[in-house]
Here is the input.
Amino acid sequence: MNPSLAVIFLTLFSGAGFGLMATVAVVNDFAIDGGLSPLRTAILVALALLLVTMGMVSSTAHLANPKNAWRAFTRWRTSWLAREGVFAVLFYPVAIAYLGWVFFTNTDRDGVALALGNAAALIGLITIFCQGMIYACLRTIRQWHTPLVPANFYALGLALGMTVLATSRVLARGHDLVLVSTASALLVAAAVMKAIYYFWIGAPSGTTLQTATGFTRGRVRLLDQGHTFGTFLTHEFSNSISPVRARYFKIGVYLLGFLAPIAILLLATRTPIGLTVLLAPVLAFIGIGLERYLFFVEAQHVVNLYHGRMPGPLPQMHPALRAHAADALSAGKPGRLVPSYEKR
Amino acid sequence: MRLGLVIDLDTCVGCHACATACKEWNTSAITAPLTDYDPYGKEPSGVWFNRIRHYEIGEYPNNKTINFPMSCMHCENAECVTVCPTGASYKRPEDGIVLVDQDKCMGCNYCSWACPYGARELDRESGTMKKCTLCVDRIYDEALPAEERQPACVLACPAHARLFGDLDDPESTTSRAVRERGGYALMPELNYSPTNHYLPPRTRPSISTSDLPRGSLARKVKEWVNRVVER
Here is the structure.
């Protein structure tokens, strides 16, 4: 799939914003480590609103005809994209009411504050679910059609939110073990969930060029794709990444997205490192942004089969078999599709 | 009623006439225009509702070239309609044609992600999604003679490889062809229940060469000289 920045930023920033809102609500609900001060709560909720808004604004850049974007709320009965829009918009009044209440009454412990905070957190979490289901409901893309997708969106959003929250606590108090260890635990959980996903998407798909053309008894090979230059289909669906490059990217995801933030936060609990602790959320965003890029670029739409491209490499296969499979599927070289009248 | 196409892979010669006829009709029809990008330049591209690909089936010498036209399948279970957040994509209950309301589409591409057949293409110029309309503005046009109330691709096909009809009516030409020739739908495992069907190539006995008259001695010498002497 085309890894468009608009969609990467939408899922990354709004996921982190909803995650931050949820972690703020939980920390205040149970007064974890004494809870947050009203001012700090207000700042963090404002930050959550900012992140969600950044995501929503960048998502409109993905629309070719944004003047009709208001219609996107109408088909919530069938479309996960419409549901996401409805809940994302519902999030604003509740979160802003919470922010206003905490800011003007200077308390985040009374019933109204807790009710508003939890309502905003719940709507945010529902929005993350809808966001994951946008991708998970598509049967045409094997790498997305798995319940692990919304699960990953949850884990990554909550981990990012908690990392931001723990960083703000470290900045305020110098060191704090409770929130930092919670953030580390969420980052580890998200990393493990993502690893499960990476193993899972290696499974071969049931759909092949044989079932796509109906010639299931013999070999089918593309002779000509019928167009001399790219089409909408090649632009939108033909992006891919070589397995070697993807492996380096995944190492980057784990180093930047999970390992570095945990190390920086833990370091901050031992020695005062001042503003350097801000690197923890920044690196987490970069690493998980890289993860989101891979999420799109590794996804292979079945329409690529018609262009002679086989679904991605099969990392789970035995190396001996893999070499054989690569031979048989030689048309499945990664990279963009070439014009059909290329020199042979 | 379930209107759709049946495509005969036995007779399709891969001439792309259906695609050009489609482009010609639809570039001034209800979802017009079908924008071209850089049409006379080095990198020509544009919006098409019908694309023809060419495949080789089997291994030499038992191989065969198959020309494979593909357009919207007007699926029974059209996920492109289900996922559309704006309600721009819809399936007409009366004849099963899947259409995009150009006034409602916001160009989010989500329906094209849901379509396994690559039937939908975004027009960058208008910012809306466009797709095969089954020539809905031809097939009901009473100003046209009855035999011309068919999609442009069907009328243009020189090999009569495209049939248009009601696949709900068991006695229509299309249903009969599907029944008699073993017509099939593409990617049945995805459960989109496409309306369009494909007819497989007929199996014919291979032409025997053993009963051909053997060449005379003079002819054999000529063939041998031809092989040896370079011109």
